[in-house]
Amino acid sequence: MENGPVPVDTKSTVDDERTVAELEDRWRRALADLDNLRKRYARELERERAAERARVACAWLPVLDNLELALDHAQRDLSHDSGPLAQGLLAVRDQAIVVLAGLGYERHDETGIPFDPERHEAVVARADDHVPPGTVIEVLRPGYGDGDRQLRPAAVVVSADTPGA
Amino acid sequence: MENGPVPVDTKSTVDDERTVAELEDRWRRALADLDNLRKRYARELERERAAERARVACAWLPVLDNLELALDHAQRDLSHDSGPLAQGLLAVRDQAIVVLAGLGYERHDETGIPFDPERHEAVVARADDHVPPGTVIEVLRPGYGDGDRQLRPAAVVVSADTPGA
């Protein structure tokens, strides 16, 4: 510190220097916060959009499930002439599956593949001599979507060890 | 400006004061920007969420339309025994309407009300002696949602002036 005849001014200068450094620091922090906020927001926006998409798509799954249940029932009962209506509704069912795929949620109703806890929910185990244990032998309710974008796993029947095998 | 024996210091002090004021100003601006950005993001997030909701809900409307077309067709043709299937599918149709209402998109298929260009799209005009001109006399395709949240207007038949009236 210089020895000057104007100690007040000198002190003020030192204070000002401190203030300048502090203010510059604050300003830079605020700029960094601004930048972080922008980046965070871009990520959040995409995440929120995806969450909303999944929420709305999920709301429709019970409608599609019931449409399929009604169709399955009608097809087992084809002694009645529900043929033309059932045909039309199969097309509606397919259309719904295309809508879901278009939103990023592929349908999964494959059988004969190994059980995968990420994609399957085993609701029944059944002895089956024709396939290795742990194979999906029937899909009771299809799954939709994969990984992060999974709406729900497929509910399946899995082959169990045959007794005595 | 004071007359002091340390002119360099004095100048520096003045510069520092300017810098302090400028930096403080910058810092405050950055904070204000941060605050504005936060508010803007909150609004934008809600708007984007609503847009995604509408987009996904809209994707399902053709599915519901086709389900209804198939049902209408079957009901006109009830000489055939598509009864049980049609019954089941009416329930599915109602379920879909409840899903849409739950997402904020009420169904609009009222007749006997005045034509409203905000909510109706007139696709046919028909002479009708029993109602005033400009009345919705038939809904060809229901509308969903209101105001900002309208997914689509209802496509309607509107009563025209009767010739000679």
Please tell me about this protein's structure:
The structure is a homodimer of 165-residue chains. Chain A folds into 2 domains: 1-105; 106-165, Head domain of nucleotide exchange factor GrpE (Nucleotide Exchange Factor Grpe, Chain A, domain 2, Roll), CATH 2.30.22. Chain A is built from 2 helices and 5 strands; from the N terminus they run ααβββββ. The first copy, chain A, has helices at 7-76, 83-102, and strands spanning 107-108, 120-127, 136-141, 143-144, 154-160. In chain A, the strands form 2 sheets. Chain A has a 3-stranded mixed sheet with strand order 2-5-3, with no helix packed on it. In chain A, α1 packs antiparallel against α2. The first copy, chain A, is elongated, with a radius of gyration of 32 Å.
Major β-sheet of chain A, in short?
3 strands, mixed
Proportion of residues in helical segments of chain A: 40-55%
Order of helices and strands of chain A: HHEEEEE
| Number of structural domains of chain A | 2
Q: Helix- and strand-based class of chain A?
A: alpha+beta
Contiguous helical run count of chain A = 2
Arrangement of strands in the largest sheet of chain A: 2-5-3
Q: Beta-strand percentage of chain A?
A: 15-25%
Head-to-tail CA distance between termini of chain A: 92 Å
Mean pLDDT of chain A comes to 86
Based on Cα principal axes, name the global outline of chain A: elongated
Alpha carbon gyration radius of chain A: 32 Å
Oligomer kind: homodimer
The most extensive interface between chains reads: A-B, 58 and 59 residues
Low-confidence stretches of chain A: 1-7
Number-wise, the strands of chain A total 5
Keywords (chains A, B): Chaperone, Coiled coil, Cytoplasm, Stress response
Protein name (chains A, B): Protein GrpE
Organism (chains A, B): Phytohabitans houttuyneae
Family (chains A, B): Belongs to the GrpE family.
